[in-house]
Specification:
Distance between the termini: 23 Å
Number of strands: 4
Number of helices: 0
Radius of gyration: 13 Å
Structural class: mainly beta
Shape: globular
Strand content: 25-35%
Strand order of the largest sheet: 1-4
Helix content: under 10%
């Protein structure tokens, strides 16, 4: 995979979801996640630059720099 080109990973979110956590680890010290989140309505929820820890997006709290608000069901 060419790390210089962004790609989308769609996933289904069930109704009544209160938070989403993205865990990642390639088992190296160079594991850095660059990602953003768009909800099913196309609303940008935020993007993290150089996050090395798991990312959490929820209705009450989020990791930096995401926006807390209800999680919409859908893809």
């Amino acid at each position: 995979m060419d790390s210089l080109h962004p790609f989308f990973v769609a996933f289904d979110v069930p109704s009544d979801t209160r938070a989403i956590e993205i865990a990642h680890d390639d088992l190296s010290g160079d594991d850095i996640l660059e990602w953003g989140l768009v909800d099913p309505q196309g609303v940008f929820r935020g993007g993290g630059g150089g996050n090395e820890v798991n990312a959490v997006v929820g209705e009450a709290a989020t990791s930096r720099p995401y926006v807390p608000r209800p999680i919409a069901a859908g893809t």
